[in-house]
Amino acid sequence: MRQTYTYYIYALLACCLLWAAPLPARKRQAPPAPDVQELRADSLMERVIFFAPMYEEAVAAYKADLYIKGRIHVKKQNFLLRFWPSIFRLRRGVREYLMETYGELNYTAPDQYDQRVTAAMGTSSEFWDMDHRLPEYFHINVYSPTLLDDKLISPLSPRADRFYRYRLDSVWGPRHDRTYRIRFTPRTKSFQLVEGYVVVSDNVWSVREMRFAGRSEWFRFNVLLRMGEVGQRDEFLTRRSDLEGYFSLLGNKIEGQYTALLDYGEITPLADSEAAPRRERSRYDLSESYVLRCDTNALVRDTATFNNLRPLPLSMHERGIYRDYYRSQDSLPRRRRRHSKSLEFMGQMGELLISDHTFNLSKMGSVRCSPLINPFLVSYSGSNGFSYRQEFRYNRLFPGDRLLRVVPKIGYNFTRKEFYWSIDTDYEYWPEKRAALHLNLGNGNRIYNSRVLDDLKAMPDSLFDFDQIHLDYFKDFYFRLRHTWEIVNGLTLDVGVSIHRRTEVERSNFEYVYPEMPPVKSLGGKAATDRPDVPTTVIPAFDPALLNRFRHSYNSFAPRIVLTWTPGQYYYMDGKRKVNLHSNYPTVSVDWERGIAGVLPNSGSYERFEVDYQHQIRLGPMRKLYYRMGWGKFTDQKDIYFVDFANLARHNLPVGWNDEIGGVFQLLDGRWYNSSREYVRGHVTYEAPFLLLPHLMKYTQYVLNERVYLNALAVPHLKPYLEAGYGIGTHVFDFGVFVSFANWKYQEVGCKFTFELFNR
């Protein structure tokens, strides 16, 4: 028995040892431990992001001297470079260009800049025309939730951890005053996100330095911002900005390097601005800091003077660029050669076809025209098909900031084979009150008269079909003369007259043929066969006087009044000219037009009312909600007229991403716009990045913005018409897909496509 108990004791001890021994490693690995550096970086960035909104508004205004130096190196080029809009004129055999500017920069919170260039010198006067968006790289507030004028999501924005990963790179300084360098990388591939690092100071959690790099399809950039020191008056402001840009397009490669230095003279903290007495003028007047101006005629171009202004000395290489440029200017007359006139003419014609041109006419204004061969003026939509547009602009400025503007436009719709033209003339004679005369003439959309409405009215909704009705289309020539006047800020009165002349596309004979009609008695009581040469046959339910209502052409003469109100309208004064900006409130307009019979031959009477309400709301960084509602009705009709609403109209020529911000119907047949005397419409559009696409696939990084559309229209026979869509915007093109429903039944799926290269 003793041996048996001893055996059981040894067995129990063995089991305990086996249970306590470590288990062998399993094939399935445990999740990795969190990175200590990432955890620490996240906690540090939480503090930086917490203080960022406070530091963003810490400075209410400042005045600074701004020096900008830029150098362009053309590494590779071919003849396709001429297709690049706004490229400055390159000289044969020259690969490097240098340009410097010196001026004043005034700022008022939150995003209002006034930059005045007072001195400039360089090797190309058109240097800065290469990209008009360059100034936005020198006006960066590092604490703002977005960068580059709402194009990029900042790593310091609220809830930025959804888009970025943070990692602590290095730490230096004494324990009571640490400095941290924190790197940030995008969680997904997108052109709205950047990578780089930020250097922040302990205790105050303000930024000392920030570097971020990003790209688009054709441009890569690397920006380095150096801020003021802790405790200094420019602690929250950029003292130096360095930009490296790399352009790559159509086999052309161009490298640009830019440096901006700011020397602050006056800095007004937010606390001081709130304590200061309020100015007498309206709080919506942003004139002190919103005018962006560069008077090229007043620029200082003297080399000796600019040498005294330059805060940053030139390098030996940059001095060599200037030296080579001045030598080429001195030897230019001796190097001039004869050119073939035919080759010179062909070169000028080719440049006109593919380049954007501005012609300055001495003492007579300027004329600007877009390239004749420009694929970015072509669009496609499901209802309109392919369209092309071309426009020209003439501007002339008179004393007192009075302005004359003439804009001729031409366009062609390839699907309907229709040519469109218009001339819009504006003369602002009282710019302080935005008082102006407007003259518009051209040809409008093809339209049919109100006789068709009676035919439509007699048809059941379930049987409604345009193909069952003979539509007599009319060409439209319009002439509008109106006067606008802003009575008070945001309230505008528009009074004028609208004249239309509509003629048949195909001339009608007004013959009625009933081949299957049984014989009937004539008006004289004899059979119709007694006098076959006399058309005395009685047509049932036909009034012969009705023929007098049908004509080959129709005219209309209608006075028109439009009242538009936008509360809280921000604006600035550019000299004596009032320029409206934006408002946080909706815009409401009331439009009334009255057709008067007898003023012109064959003119009828009618009355048109329209009400429109639209509002755009910013919901956060790069997120917007837009909604629009409208109602219109024709009343008091006594003769044949044409249903031609002002707010509910079809666009036949190319329009881009921001055309009425989605307040249009993409798939609605154009004939519906003229098929009802009354309408009710509504539109809702939501725009944001990272909306539906996961941005994890290879090509989704090219998507800049996404939109969701919902459009609704209620007219007779369409109760309702619904249209839902989804669109994406890129640097190259915009694309949207839409699905429509009529009377709650599925209709069709279509798309819209427009080129947007260089327009963002």
Essential attributes:
760 residues; 16-stranded antiparallel beta barrel; 33 strands; mainly beta
Describe this structure in words.
With 760 residues, this protein is mostly beta strands. The protein has a 16-stranded antiparallel barrel. The N and C termini lie far apart (95 Å).
E-strand count: 33
Shape: globular
Q: Quick one: biggest sheet?
A: 16 strands, antiparallel, barrel
Give the neighbour order of strands across the main sheet.
15-16-17-18-19-21-22-23-26-27-28-29-30-31-32-33
Helix content: 10-25%
Give the radius of gyration.
35 Å
Number of helices: 9
Look at the structure and give the mean pLDDT: 76
Instruction: Report the end-to-end length measured between terminal Cα atoms.
Output: 95 Å
Oligomer: single chain
How much β-strand is present in the residues? Answer: 35-45%
**Unreliable residue runs:** 1-34, 291-298, 335-355, 510-543
Protein structure class: mainly beta
Q: What's this entry about, in short?
A:
This protein has 760 residues and is mostly beta strands. The chain contains nine helices and 33 strands.
